[in-house]
Design brief:
Blueprint lengths: L1 H17 L18 H5 L34 E9 L4 E8 L3 E5 L5 E6 L2 H14 L7 E2 L9 E7 L2 E6 L5 H9 L7
Parallel strand pairs: 5-7
Antiparallel strand pairs: 1-2, 1-6, 2-3, 3-4, 6-7
Length: 185
């Protein structure tokens, strides 16, 4: 099971990074830098040894680096990838600071778009603030294994946090609940 989790985390990291390039859709300041998947998600040899990895800032450094927790309307507020489930599908939601969102498939192709209502955007911002990404572990653990469950990766405010659905802390469950749907109805 540990090997499965490590492989799942590595694959999910690759999917997240595939859509984060400067020419790809959704590549905002909150996107992790190239090559950070192993370091920030705790994958690789010895990933199960010791305590969970601490969150690692995904923010780029330099004079143009953002330090505000509230992005400008065109910048990425949050990026959440959900993979697994009975069908084993991967979908990513990218929500911009103005509440506009896009849904991407496993290959970062567009699947849908929309805009959150003012109340929906306020609820998402509140959930993100209350989640306090800077204090969350890089990998949420502790819940029971659900073999057809979902695995989530969140990128917000320069931090990347991931975990299986039953291991997510309640604050991250509230973030998931405030997001648009991961699939088309």
């Amino acid at each position: 099971m540990r090997a499965f989790r490590a492989v799942a985390a590595a694959l999910l990291g690759a999917v997240v990074l595939a859509g984060c390039g400067p020419s790809g859709s959704g590549g905002g300041d909150d996107a992790p830098p190239q090559g950070s998947a192993g370091a920030s998600t705790g994958t690789g040899a010895g990933a199960d040894a010791g305590p969970p990895a601490s969150p690692s800032p995904a923010r780029s450094s330099g004079p143009g680096a953002r330090t505000s927790a509230v992005p400008a309307p065109g910048e990425t507020l949050v990026r959440v990838t959900r993979s697994g489930g009975f069908a084993g599908e991967t979908h990513t939601l990218v929500v911009q600071g103005d509440g506009s969102w896009s849904r991407l498939d496993a290959k970062a192709g567009p699947e849908g778009a929309g805009k959150l209502s003012e109340q929906g955007l306020a609820a998402l911002r509140t959930a993100l603030r209350e989640a306090d990404f800077a204090r969350l572990p890089g990998i949420a653990t502790g819940g029971p294994t659900i073999y057809d469950g979902f695995f989530y990766t969140f990128v917000h405010g320069g931090y990347e946090v991931a975990g299986e659905q039953e291991s997510l802390p309640p604050a991250l469950v509230r973030v998931v609940d405030a997001l648009p749907p991961f699939t088309q109805d």
